[in-house]
Amino acid sequence: MATLDTTTADITLDPNEPPAPHKHPYHLVDPSPWPLVASFSGAALLFGIVLWSHYNIHWMFGLGLLGVLTSMYFWWRDVVRESKQPGVHTPIVRIGMRYGMALFIASEVMFFVAFFWAFFHFALYPEHVSGATEAMWPPKGIHTFDPFGLPFLNTMILLLSGCTVTWAHHALIEGDRKGMLQGLALTVGLGLFFTTLQAVEYAEAPFAFSGGGVYPSTFFLATGFHGFHVIVGTIFLLVCLIRGWRGDFTPRRHFGFEAAAWYWHFVDVVWLFLFVCIYVWGAGPIAEH
Fold first, then answer.
1. How many CB atoms neighbour CB 204 within 10 A?
2. Minimal CB count within 10 Å: which of 42, 70, 73, 233?
3. Interior CA angle at 155 toward 224 and 289, to 5°?
4. Which residues contact 2 (CB under 8 A, 6 or more apart)?
């Protein structure tokens, strides 16, 4: 697993690396329209969700979503182009990017803490479940998944994907471009396989999201948002695969891939907690399939 090491190659100057275009090693952001466009698009997206939910008006949501996706594409395109400009992403700038990604993942950890908090609150204090006739968890009448069916298979898939992305990272560091591309392609394929199996699991779920009470709500929110993060991570790695095929990464300059690998390992670890806590520890009567 990649680590946040800022003591070796990150601060060691490469004699072949061109000097910074300024008299300092820090980054001066060029004027860009995308922060402003992204802000207005995000507000439109939020307002569109409200209009869709209360008045069944869809166009504002579509406009906001299109604006957000457009901003993401062009903003990140500019960042990729910027990384190729000689001397712009200095070692000091790359350290700042590493800390920024680490703090982003820390915020994602707290995001999932909220879902685990909700699950354990009701699991440890089932008498707090509104409308429950008996203080038990899962609530009476809820049948759960067999944890060693599809959930266990998905666990093995994600653990294997963690191995393949690490293989790709080490291959890149060692200058093995073919191994890096193979490892990334396998990781993307495993991510798609995981998402497909989770869709099958949801289709066969013995309880519904709406009207099923607190157990389906906490289950689908926790596992569903994790599934969303798997989709985001798969896209992240797919972009890295395309960039790797184009030759954008070198053994010393590949922070985009490194950030994707950190994110993917985070997704793996969250799933391990979900599997152990919700599928295994929180299991009740197993549903018949």
1. 12
2. 73
3. 75
4. 169, 258, 261, 262, 265
HSE on the CB side for 120, CA within 13 Å? 10
Structure tokens at 174: 């060692």
| CA pair distance 153, 210, nearest whole angstrom | 27
Output the CA–CA distances (angstroms, integers) from residue 59 to 47, 56, 64, 180, in the order listed.
Answer: 11, 10, 9, 42
Q: How many CB atoms lie within 10 A of CB 16?
A: 6
Distance CA(273)–CA(255), nearest Å, equals 27
Helices 255-274 and 91-124, packing angle to 10 deg: 10
| Amino acid, single-letter form, for residue 32 | S
- Of 201, 191, 175, 157, the closest CA to residue 254 belongs to 175
C-alpha 250/C-alpha 58 separation (Å) is 45
The identity of residue 91, as a single letter, is P
Q: Assign 196 to helix, strand or coil.
A: helix
**Residue 12: Cβ-neighbour burial (10 angstroms; 0-12, 13-18, 19+):** exposed
Residue 195 falls in which region: left (phi positive, over 0), alpha (psi -120 to 50) or beta: alpha
- The span from the CA of 97 to the CA of 265, in Å, is 18
For the whole model, what pTM was predicted?
A: 0.85
